[in-house]
Amino acid sequence: MTSLQLIIKISWRNLWRNPRGTLLTALALGLGLALLLISTGLLDGGHEQTVADGVRLGPGDVVIQAKGYQDSGAQDLLLAEPTVRSVEAFLQTPSGKSVLRGVSARLLATGLLNSAANASGVAIIGVIPNDERSVSLIPQRMVQGTYLENDKLGGAVIGIELARKLGVKVGSKVVLMTQVVQGSGAEGKGGTAGDMKSTLLRVSGIFHTGLQTMDAGVIYLPLAVAQTLLGVEDHQVTQISLILRREGDSQTLASRLRKFLSGKTVEVLTWRESMPMLAQILRLDRSFNYVMNIVVLTMVGLGILNTILMRVLERRYELGVCAALGLRPLQLATMILSESLALTAISLTMGLVLGLSINHYFATSGLDFRWVFGHGLPPALVFDPILYSRLNPDRITSSVVVVFIMATLISLYPALKASRTELPDSLKVF
Fold it and tell me: What is the dihedral of CA 123, 126, 130, 135, to 10 degrees?
């Protein structure tokens, strides 16, 4: 047996001379790793759910629209028919089909919605109902009535706050007024650009998202009705919204679309570019979570440093005997370092078991925040109140590596302290 193997064997035996202290120290470090895994899993799961809900209440994972629309929002900036056809052709290719979950063309404008009781400014969204079901969350957030149907052109869907303001319910009649948009020609169908035009609609459904701007200021109606109202050509739309199977493919697909549509006056944006505020909020939340993880690990690390250092100081006489028997300073340091690494291995095992077990529960059953608010959710809560953990192997590996490196660095000072054991002072018995 080599000297290194002998030192490691002695280190392992030393570790279990005080099993309660060893297990308590290992548990402290293991809890640090478990907290890191749990917070990372819930953070990633929360971000994934937030992005999924955000893009389905917004423009999608990738949006194609006329160049300049993101900045100006001008409703006369429309995608021409050749551009729409080109996008449809690209999405039918194998590379497009493989990543695409849903696609919906939308016509966006602003108008004035009138009822017998009141009037309110609204954002108009014209959609193809069957296509929109695969893209939007609105069909899933209906609280009264039903969503739009392709064969019912006179229907409209509005938010619950807007319905309350106008004093309408399912089946009520409303009048939508807006300005005719200049399409591809000097005149749009049904009127000259700039003219005011109105249409009679019947409320077929009312939705509730919890998002004030949507619940109080949006009306959905069939695309054909919106095109007639705005006086644009049949194939002209404001934007084409794409929902992907995996959000991570958004940048790749956007790059391919930009290359495919080069030369056309369009802009292809990922959700981070079309919803920069959401992207900034997620970055801020992630940064805050990293800071909290550092604080937790620092507190755990200082506690472990104190424990290991105290164990070294308590064994001053023992280390002096080892030095008297011929162990060199490097061997003394190796012995303490071996004990610390073995303790770290036990801690990582405990932390992995605890952290992955809790993450598995949160991934399957979720963390339900409804208990915080009782039976009712606050109206400002937009997204799903049940948070599901998402922890990928890369995150597990990086967490284990971070904790291992931290524990190893912490062990260096006690090991250095042991290597500097001096004779004969260390052999004095008080």
Answer: -50
Long-range pairs of 376-383 with CB within 8 A, sequence gap ≥ 24: 377/210, 379/210, 380/210, 380/212, 381/210, 382/53, 382/57, 382/209, 382/210, 382/211, 383/49, 383/50, 383/53, 383/54, 383/210
Strand-pair category, 196-207 with 155-159:
parallel
Q: Is the pLDDT of residue 42 over 80?
A: yes
* Strands 218-222, 196-207: pairing kind: unpaired
pLDDT in tens, 203-227: 999 999 878 888 999 999 999 999 9
The number of helix segments (H) and strand segments (E) in the chain equals 16, 14
- Tell me if residue 243 falls in helix, strand or coil: strand
Q: Report how far apart, in Å, the C-alpha atoms of 379 and of each of 97, 140, 166, 375 are.
A: 38, 17, 19, 13
Rounded CA-CA distance 182/261 in Å is: 24
- Is the predicted pLDDT of residue 231 greater than 80, yes or no? yes
Check: CB of residue 385 under 8 Å from CB of residue 377: yes
Q: pTM above 0.90?
A: no
Is residue 223 within 8 A of residue 64, CB to CB? The reply is no
Q: How confident is the model at residue 371 (pLDDT cuts 50, 70, 90)?
A: low
In angstroms and rounded to an integer, the radius of gyration of the C-alpha atoms of the chain is 32
Give the distance, in angstroms, between the CA of residue 95 and the centroid of all CA atoms in the same chain: 25
Average pLDDT for 31-57: 86
Which structure tokens are listed for 27? 């548990």
Calpha distance 34→236 (Å, rounded)? 54
Which of 185-194, 297-306, 376-385 shows the lowest per-residue confidence on average (mean pLDDT)? 376-385
